[in-house]
Amino acid sequence: MKVGEFSGTGALIRLILRRDRLLLPIWIALPPLFVVLVVAAFVSLYPTAASQQMLAAQIVNSPGFVALLGPVSSATIGGLTAWRSSFFVAVIVAGANALTVIRHTRADEETGRYELLGSGVVGRRAPLSASLVVTLGADLVIAALVTAALVAFGLPVAGSVALGLSFAAIGWTFAALAGVAAQLAESAGVARGIAGAIFVLFYLLRAVGDANEQSGQTWLSWTSPLGWMHLVQPFANERWGVFALFLGVVIVLIAVAYALSSRRDVGAGILRPQLGPARASRRLRSPLALAWRLHRRTLLAWAAVFAVYGVMIGYLAKTSADLLAANPQLATLFAHFGGASAYTDALFTLSLTFLGWITAAYAITATLRLRSEEVEGRVDHVLAAAVSRLRWATSNLALVVIGSAVVLTAFGLPAGLTYGLSTGNVGYELPRVLVAALAYLPAVWVVAGIAMALYGLVPRLSFVSWGVLGAFVLVELIGETLQVSQSILNISPFNHVPTVLVSGVSLMPLVSLTLLALVLTIVGLVGFQCRSIG
Amino acid sequence: MSVIEIENLTKYYGKTRALNDVNLTVEDGEVFGFIGPNGAGKTTTLRILLGLLRKNAGNVSVLGADPWRDAAALHRRLAYVPGDVSLWPNLSGGEVIDLLGRLRGGFRQSRRDELVERFKFDPTKPCRTYSTGNRQKVALIAAFISDVELFILDEPTLGLDPLMEAVFRDCVTEVKQAGKTVLLSSHILAEVEALCDRISIINEGTIVESGTLAELRHLTRISVSVETVRPVTGLSELQGVHNIRVDGARAHFTVDAGAINRVMEHLTPFDVRALTSAPPTLEDLFLRHYELQTGESAQ
Fold it and tell me: Phi and psi of B70, rounded to 5°?
């Protein structure tokens, strides 16, 4: 390893800080903000030790919830906070780290920006090193802020440090993983896909491992860094040794990334791209066919993840119901929820709440395809051919509308089927669960409509649609735990989605949400018709 | 009727004026060169002609239609090659050629195969692996396979090697012979000289010169190298002679088109052994124009 391979790292760090001057503070601020909200909620809702123990017992004894969010390490405010926030913060931190590393390594190479830098005094390992320094540093800032916030609420210092560090550790893991993915893939999209798929895999391993905690099969949780977050046991008997495990994995991954980076050409990946067909298939002859071609890989990947998740939830619902039936003490505990069936319904409803948000995120990505096609200049080819703007935009939107339906069906169908098969009542459970999933469609379309309206009217602010979705999710999360006035809750379209499994289908909100989505989309299309391209 | 008519076209990007009262006419069946330095407004003008950009003032008509209002129908009759060709990274080059050809209303398979062959293009690679030149080829092949009346080409040879540039010139000549109209923007002057019937020069959003190459040449000076038996003297006293450099028996200078006769008479007594003269290239024309401008602004 020569020193020259790292030269220019300092300059690149400053470049990253400059380019991400807005994004970096936002993703650093989100985890501590979220933790503060959660602590505040638990302090106000479960002030006594007895109430905290009662809640912890409920969670620990329902494999479904343990699978969704992980186990509760201690029946205290600290333990509950760790349980409630770990998954969400892991999503934010893992996502932000992976995206940042890929953005400043593979994406720069793919777009050719790196050529400019690489011809200067910049070593071949400098971009990876610089992006790792920035992300790993940001993770430590997150850890410090989270620890400070928890200690400020009067929680034990050791537990606060452990929770803060576990967030940083998951960030480090995914920064390093993304570093490897960026070397393997030739395109940033594929690198992001690899990082995302690994996150889902880790989540599933942890979920299944934790759900089977009582049968002693926790070894699966030990295979997943997302499981390690809980195995650190913040606010219980902190196992500091787990951090050595994190550190070991991070060091190995970074070493692998550096080794791979020395073995390849700039611009090339380790995975070789395959040759394509010399001629287009007969079907590739319309903007709709092009849109399908551009969306299909992402859509199928999302659908596959949702399907696996559906099978898992369907299976867990049955296990949880069995557990309740076998344990009369637990059954009385859940009696005020309405018994076993109400419990499984609650599990489905909670999963669907998450999936609704995630589907909305998919819908934003799919809608903003329009924006990236325009920014990259590819739309010029299509609009300079005999294709009207309306036809091009609606072709893409058709895939947003249908794609979000496909994704939700991909969850609802296997979830309902698995659960129905296990209870022996497919005819009853399948349609119920499927309809409950599809009930989220209009709310998802509203979010897509907001993205379209922004794209049509003020394309430069298209990214604000992410902020809007974030605000909706925040409103929902706060509304779940804090007493918030109904008028604020009503801002979020998700708040209007009928909980089909609990209270049945109500058409009114679905129709009005769909109409709202339609109006937003039309506003966006009109704006798009009237403005310049590019 | 003219194929392209632009009258007093003005376009602002925010407060920056990109085009200022541009006037331009392209006649049926001609190859029209549109020249200017980077950032002069060439691409902006072409994108307005395609209905991609909204104009702020003026009239634009393409093939008798309003490019903003009738975009889709109009585009059936024209082909466009953007200056910066960006393609879908996971489609193969062949797929993009077919897709664009079909979106424009179809093409003959034999013509497609012929052009792929002539441009020596490998259509099986994913577009993300193509170099600038190869991406350019995709757009050029997709354009030239289309049976359209008008070709709008924005700096189409950027990134092509000289061999491919020759193929491109052949293609332009062919479509011209078939009676099609070509609007070619460029800052590669030799290309415009070789291909174009008429040209317009644009700078900072304003058309500074228009006409046939011959018409514009009167503005420029011919460069002359002469070898004489006795060293030439007294050149600097002659009107219309510039940039004189005398090097023993050789003299180099430039001369205004109107002063050639006088210069020849002046040279003869020095016993001319050899004389070469070069017609002004567009490069000279360009430089000359900027000299004039900076001269004016200096005053």
Answer: -105, 30
